[in-house]
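Appendix B, record 7
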Amino acid sequence: MQPVRDAGRLWIWCDALGAWSQAHSHLYFQVHKRQPQLDSNPLDGLKSTNPFSMVKYATEDVAPTPKQESLVINPEADKVENGYANMPNTPKATDLVPIMAEKRTGMYRFAVQSVHLRECFAEFLGTYVMLVFGMGVNNQVTNSENEKGTWLSINICWGIGVMIGVYCSEGISGAHMNTAVTLAHCVYGRLPWWKAPGYMISQVVGAFCGAFTIWVMQWQNLNKIDPNRETTQSSFATYPGVGIFNLTAFYTEFIGTGMLVLAIYAITDTKNRPAGKYGNAFAFALMIMALGMAFGMNTGYAVNPARDFGPRLFTLCAGWGTKTFTSHHYYFWIPIVADLLGGVCGAGLYRLLVEIHHPQTPLL
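Structure tokens (predicted):
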């Protein structure tokens, strides 16, 4: 099967043994010079055309030795368990970074095998990235008194932050990055209830750390603009606008979060008109921009309990005091309760009017 392997026959020729070495065993010399065929016997062509087809060849056909794989792929590596709708179209890339069964080296020594723990890591990172962009643009615009940005730039930057957060976590955890989304998935059976605490805690901690990151970056500006920490807390957590009652704020957050989760269910509905495995992140970004432009005036559109509670808890620890929880008649509970209820109702509305009416796949 290897012509070069038979090159020693030329040396025998040169050593005065003559053409006998080339001619003996009839056509044996030709066998090695034919191109091996992967899907057929290399001798088939010769047997069908030469008059000596009944002659026994010097070697019998031998099955090739199977190639030993040096890397063993863990079948559970980065398995998508959840996703917005179990995301059957979420691309997986286990072939790019295989999990080795042998001794790990470098950073792979710290790789975890728990699927749920990896999901929590992904939720933390996605929420953290989203909050770094969001808190960053909030502080830049307000601390510069609209010189370095506008309300439009706030909405655009929040949308981009969501998009990058989705890229960070969608293939692992489904990129909830929102406690209201997690609760809705649990209510409608898309996420096991036992996973909810891990998801929610990861989201709140990610939001807390994102607020801390921007607080360090804006430290000098905050000391110059608000040395006594009286007014700038609104750059981190959300508060109702001037003259807005808590009831109006509750209604605004309820509707805004309902539209958010309804849109998520629509975008990821594979039986309707899904954005596709490469379009989800961009669709989510546009959705967040639209939410800010439509529902941001009354409350600053938290539409996410983790996004509001994490930074609010940070401002309590960072010198703004208890007013972060007591101001506006204890407003802090509204972005939690209204958003959780709104998310469940928004998802339920889509399921009630669209999803449950899809033709059922027949059982085979």
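Remarks on this record: The chain has two domains: 1-68, 115-357. Residues 33-40, 45-59, 69-80, 83-96 have pLDDT under 50 and may be disordered.
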